Give the backbone structure.
Amino acid sequence: MLPRACLLSHCHRAASCYIKPPSLLLLPSLWTPLRSIRSETSTQEHKDSSTNNRMPRNFKKGKGRKAGWDRRPKTDYKDVQKDNDRFETYYRVQKIVPDEEWSDFMTALRSPLPTTFRITGTRESAVEVRRQFEDHYFSHLNTVTFSNGESVEPPKPIRWYPERLAWHLQAPRQFIRKSKELKKFHTFLVQQNEQGNISRQEAVSMIPPFLLDVKPHHKVLDMCAAPGSKTAQLIEMIHAEGNSMPEGLVVANDADNKRCYMLVHQTKRLQSPCFMITNHDASIFPSLYTTAADGTKQRLYFDRVLADVPCSGDGTLRKNVTIWRSWNPMNAIGLHPLQSRILERGLQLLAVDGLIVYSTCSLNPIENEAVVAHMLRKHKGSVELVDVSSQLPRLRRSPGLKTWTIMDRSQNVYASPEDCKDNSKIHTTMFPPSKDELEWMRLERCCRLLPHHQDTGGFFVAVLRKTAPLSQRESKDIAQSAEAASTTTTTANASAADAGDADGDETVIRPSDPVQRSGQRLFNEDPYVFLVDEPEKKNILDGILDFYGFGPNFPKELMLTRSHGGKKRNVYIVSPLIKSIVANNIDDGLRVTNTGVRVFTRSDSKQEGLVFRMCQEGIDVTMPFMQKRVVHATAEDVLAILHEDTPFIDTLSSATEKAFNELSEGACAIVVEKGSPSVEKTEDGRGFRPLPCTVRMVGWRGRKTIRCLVGKHERLHYKLLVGAPPVLAEADGKKRYDNKGSSSSSSSSSSAKRAAEPEQQQQETGGDDGEEQPRKRARAGDDEGPSVWTTIKSWFGF
């Protein structure tokens, strides 16, 4: 018989497993004694565990289904033994590494990864950001010395990445985060990553987008996109020519709904109207349709497809150290069918003469060459491997394997398909091709990146071209794929997990993760409603177009909202191709998580023209069409607006002041054209460097002041673009600087801010901006000291 405390404990647990009847819910007094007994029982259990020296279970705090006892104990990664006899035996047999390199290979796998990142954005802005980093941030690391006397090696460009836009530092992220000597550099990395100027991404994960050779007119599909580092590269390539709305598009898909929202966060900074996030199992991704010129529906085929498939992830051992403990050959064998289905579905969605990149963060030929060989064999005459040896010429790579060995968990070797009749998990498609097949498959064109060659993680990539339609299979592709995946769909969704780092872009299947067999939550997203399809909302559209002076060429038919009824909070814009996809596929089950760029948002003002104001996210799209409310300013005026937050209009240059005075209250666009003088002096000190790219930002014209409607993190980026030194760019209007760059409290700036506070609170509502407030702004020569802008002018010699 169970003890009383134990019995009550079991009763309490059982009671919490079902929904309480309504009658009992109305009688909380019935549950109170049970709770108190449970509390006493828990206390006794804790004492018992302490007495018996047992490890207590980890309790996961929080609400909802995730709260409760965590079955998986926390892992101290320092204690993980970086050895696995099965791993070494397996890969020695596969001969992925020459015998003379084996020691270097294993040494590299046991060492932590260096910190790597790439500079993002369009080419013009990225090159300028790189110059700022090299001149102001990287150089100071030469003078950093640790307590043991060792110095820090400054970041170096990754040798194979074009234009020195990717860098690596010979120190792991954990070391940088904890080191006092590198605190400034760590702050820089975090800050720039939040702003979107850099992407902390593993070096090998940068390779697949380059091999796709994406052009602005291409239609691109990223089948397994989350968390989105590679997706961001693809979007940048679509916009490489500086066009805010190119002809092409990028569709980023992921099977996990939560990871789709990770994609939203990762790609939001790029603000592309040619981008869409979908939530589907990649192996049964639906066929998409668009509207043809004659008004009929036509099938959409993609010019480029990226299939960075879920994998066992043993190429990530340097950062996912728990794989050392869990690795066995069956991990790859279990994933081979799913990987094959995803690659085949990608080929079905690919246009003839299009390219598809198949990649994994695994070293295993069962997940790599075997999958590629299976597709080449199955679609012989329609698919070929592409020789990419001329691309990224400074990248060291190993050729694909032509033969490999099949092993099970017990290291039993299977020489032929006949040997595996008693093992249903091993399929014939996993075995190496015959000699005749090897001659035309050209598997040596695959690329394997080994950790010891360039101090990276392990990676595999293959580029395939679709040379002809895949016979009659394309007419039945969805039904056949759905039937093939009917018993294994949960595997793709359930245990897919991030590789363990924010900069990782791989989907690693972890054997230890519990499988979510109940499926994902019901897909329930807000609708996509185009304004032109709602006649009753025509006044909203007309008011926006008239206030900002959008000409007849403005694509108003591309503007949409996310609700049918009620007030429209935000207005978005998409490209024509994205609109066509939404219009033709949403009702047929396309699960769109996110698309479009926010261009207008509702304010609380009731004044005509002020109901919706412009958004910084969409200014690159809307600005070319605006004929009203555009102010062309100087770089020094923009720096003043960014730095002081709400400067008085009469403190700006005369031309800029005149332009603002000609505007009524409300949102406006502030522009500094490319080639205009920046605030940074040339090397000879006789002039100012020209602006490397056009700077556009949204402002709000108040009665007496101008306010910059740009986020905190973006402000630093724009300050750097107009030429401000980092010591000023990283500061806000609450600090003032002398000519040596030292900071002190600025009572004058505070006075100006106090005078502007009422306006800050009312600007979005269009209300009183505090004109009756006393004007306490300090001028040069006042007792309170020079104003911030006066000091800036003296610093730069204006």
